[in-house]
Design brief:
Radius of gyration: 22 Å
Helix content: 25-40%
Largest sheet: 8 strands, mixed
Bound molecules: flavin-adenine dinucleotide
Number of helices: 15
Oligomer: single chain
CATH class of one domain: Alpha Beta
Amino acid sequence: MIFAVFALAAFGSCNAFHSPRPQLQRATRMTLEAKVKVAVVGGGPSGSCAAEILAQNPNIECTLFERKMDNAKPCGGAIPVCMIEEFKLPSEIIDRKVRKMKLISPTNREVDIGQTLLPHEYIGMTRREVLDGYLRDRAISYGAKAINALVLDVNVPKSGDGKVTITYADTTQNSQSKMEFDYVIGGDGANSRVAKGMDAGEYNYAIAFQERIKISDEKMKFYEELAEMYVGDDVSPDFYGWVFPKYDHVGVGTGTVVNRPAIKQYQKAMRERCAAKIEGGKIIKVEAHPIPEHYRPKRVVNHAALVGDAAGYVTKCSGEGIYFAAKSGRMAGQAVSKIVTETGRVPTQAEMTREYIKPYDNAYSPTYVVLDILQRVFYTTNAAREAFVEMCASEYVQRVTFNSYLYKKVQGNNPIEDLKLLFLTIGSLIRGNALAPPDATFSNPTESLKRL
Ligand SMILES: Cc1cc2nc3c(=O)[nH]c(=O)nc-3n(C[C@H](O)[C@H](O)[C@H](O)COP(=O)(O)OP(=O)(O)OC[C@H]3O[C@@H](n4cnc5c(N)ncnc54)[C@H](O)[C@@H]3O)c2cc1C
């Protein structure tokens, strides 16, 4: 989930975390004779946050399709504190408030990060069945019409004014039906049917694996406010392993894109790395799911748009996707709502590109780029990982990282610290062989740090 966004500070000019401009500016209000029918497929954070906005527009009839109303998405469930305020989440949604984080290197060197957190700052740990249920119910309470059904096919005309046809299997009545809509938003995750119907193209994906492990109350105390992140070739060749505290158990997991068939071997290594801390634990649930590696080639096509994982909005390096799902859902919902209100008709592809895609990219694409670079550099070799863990001991790195993660914007940059950080980053890049000069022979991270 969280990770080193500190390079943003070092790279100076990035504006990754500027808030997108508000979408519902002063729109001219008009009442339509017939409501615009918008379908949202998927009742996860992205779909529900889109549906919540759409349902509040009197000119829109919003239908939300969800195949499983009590879905427990395989997920670490970590969310930044800003999401709680921004999405008005009640405190009961948060199982645990993580205020400490251990980053553990391939040689088991531990660095405590999160030391700069203020008393009111934390990473919220949620159970997805609770979070998703809350957001979905809220959208329904605003007027979204929920259909408990598996969407089988979505027919999106690629041009012109034709209707979007959705074929679905109604899970409560054991029947198949079709419905027509003016517009569709796909919040149906990594295996999106809406994306398929749009010919939106494929993305590469990682496989993330998680075991929920019930440990004794005594062992649980250790993880009271603490999450752990493990890096090393053993736990993942290109990602990190984690132990996240849940309300009465821990989630232990890892992920990989470069060697997906070996995911169980990496998970075994994860269990071994934290063996003493989870000793005597009982596995109560095993779960795995794809995580998108990058945006889909197309995110809006004629009268259809993708949000959340369906669009590919998970950051590399950290694997964070919940906030970006909720945010993109909200932004797409706001864009559709604004265009319908202003024009009295269904949004076009060009309008949605202007009102949803561009603001989203302006706000977040530098984040994706920087975290992609960080993952390529720091998760490549054990030497690079050791250097990275060492670098995270810096108080400045921690402050910038947490501020970036928790508030989705860079705060309080200090030019001198930034410069020092730039040198440290370059040193780590060299150790990770990403910028290796021809005669570079740095192999010992500590020795290399001294030489910088
Ligand atoms: C193991 C793991 C750990 C993770 N840990 C974290 C973390 O700690 N923090 C974080 O921020 N991110 C994490 N992520 C990423 C995060 O889970 C996703 O980015 C996020 O869930 C995306 O939300 P979404 O609404 O776009 O899609 P989803 O959460 O996948 O929701 C899609 C919804 O659509 C429904 N649906 C799908 N297909 C259909 C269909 N055909 N018909 C009807 N309904 C359908 C599904 O039932 C589901 O409710 C993790 C991912 C994995 C796999």
